Amino acid sequence: MGNKRFIKIGLVSISDRASSGIYEDKGIPSLKEWLSEALISSFETEDIVISDDQKLIEKTLIDLVDNKHCELIFTTGGTGPTIRDVTPEATLNVADKEMPGFGEQMRQISLKFVPTAILSRQVAVIRKKSLIVNLPGQPKAIKQTLEGLKDEQGNITVPGIFAAIPYCIDLIDGPYIETNEALIKVFRPKK
């Protein structure tokens, strides 16, 4: 059982309209709600709502990793094909390593609901000792992506990406994360 201290999680909502107050951001509140149900480990968040501006996204991600010492960062929004969707580009620009399995799995989950899932360009990367993951923008899709899909009996039919996140954080020397196994079962190799 590694390090028991809390994990610091950056939550970044990327939306021109939410950042300018045209509508209320729903991404961060739904992420916080999900995390408070899913994590047994204590955590704190750094929350920020910004516009779809590539340089600003890059600056924000760098600040969250290098200065605010977040070990995990979730972004929501800005991963589609429109001109203003630049979250993946910004994320890749600040990366030391790309983690393509996360994007592949998120699209697999979304494809169970909408054929337009193939238009999503979510990526995940490692910067220093931090994992950065681009999530979908819709609260329902965020939950499905993190948690995975279950059948009527509650058995996992498609694993959610969060099942792999604690072990990934272990591998980059981050804090040991424990989850509420009724909601999300973490996969770690048997010692």
Computed over alpha carbons, the radius of gyration is 16 Å
| Average pLDDT level | 93
> How many individual helices?
7
Distance N to C terminus: 11 Å
Strand content bin:
15-25%
Shape: globular
* The first-level CATH class name: Alpha Beta
Largest sheet: 6 strands, mixed
The succession of helices and strands, N to C, reads EHHEHEHEHEEHEEH
Q: Strand arrangement, largest sheet?
A: 2-1-3-6-5-4
Low-confidence runs? none
Work out the number of β strands.
Answer: 8
Provide a descriptive summary of the structure in words.
The protein is built from seven helices and eight strands. It has a six-stranded mixed beta sheet with strand order 2-1-3-6-5-4, with helices on both faces. The chain has a two-stranded antiparallel ribbon with strand order 7-8. A hairpin with a 5-residue loop joins strand 7 (148-150) and strand 8 (156-159). 34% of the residues lie in helices and 21% in strands. It is α/β, with parallel strands linked by helices. The model has no long low-confidence stretch (mean pLDDT 93). It has a single domain, classed as Molybdenum Cofactor Biosythetic Enzyme, Chain A (3-Layer(aba) Sandwich).
